Amino acid sequence: MRPLSHPKIEHITVEGILYALADPVRARIFMELASAESAKNCSTFLGACGGGVSLPKSTLSQHFKVLREAGLVYSERKGVEMHNRTRCAELREKYGALVGGIVAGYAAQWDNLF
Amino acid sequence: MRPLSHPKIEHITVEGILYALADPVRARIFMELASAESAKNCSTFLGACGGGVSLPKSTLSQHFKVLREAGLVYSERKGVEMHNRTRCAELREKYGALVGGIVAGYAAQWDNLF
DNA sequence: TTAATTGTTCTGCATATATGAACTATAGTA
DNA sequence: TACTATAGTTCATATATGCAGAACAATTAA
Prior knowledge:
- The structure is a homodimer.
- Chain A is mostly helical.
- Chain A contains five helices and two strands, in the order H-H-H-E-E-H-H.
- Chain A has a single domain, classed as Winged helix-like DNA-binding domain superfamily/Winged helix DNA-binding domain (Arc Repressor Mutant, subunit A, Orthogonal Bundle).
- Helices cover 48% and strands 11% of the residues of chain A.
- The mean pLDDT of chain A is 90.
- The A-B interface holds A 13-15, 17-19, 21-24, 27, 95-98, 100-102, 104-106, 108-109 and B 13-15, 17-19, 21-24, 27, 95-98, 100-102, 104-106, 108-109.
């Protein structure tokens, strides 16, 4: 299993961020990580991610990979689990309101549905 | 040729916006439309879009279609041409800083490259 | 060693994207 | 009414990408 790759902040791109967050499942994962008190592992999302959709773990793993490679999430192995946290602080410093605006947009959109 | 479809503001989604703008070519087109004084037609972008990349008109047409269906651009036939303008005002009203944040992000990213 | 748990990678299939070719729509001109 | 030119869309298809089951890898515990 090759080591996880996390882009340096200077290699993170706007298109990468938008691509990653254009998928509602990934956006949900990211937002749950962002609002979590501590790092969460993938399996947290196995049961039902957001709208009650349950996904196979291979699909979830791919989604985490996309978030990681876009520079949105930092993942670290802790024993048998993977601990994931967002890179919001770095991103805010580099891109200002970009990520926050997206999260706010989704929050507004989804609040009306539940 | 079936009539162009423009989503009503209430059918525009965050994921649609992000998907459309996750493509640098489309982002470039959108930003050029946004900063244009008047509506521009597709062929304006035929020669070279942004980074000097020249695309076939069928591809450009598809990109415009994506922008239109995402609710980012409004297109209107004027004679043989198509006049395109952004829907920034509506979008700002519905989504606040979402689109502006994205545009600012790309602007910052691209300013460093030219 | 064996088993259990967590997550990744591989693989086949299904969907999506890009582009040349063909087509449609409008305007101008004879 | 042709015929031509221009702007853009749609079609066909080859390529690329995404999803999910199966196999694999890494760690922990018994």
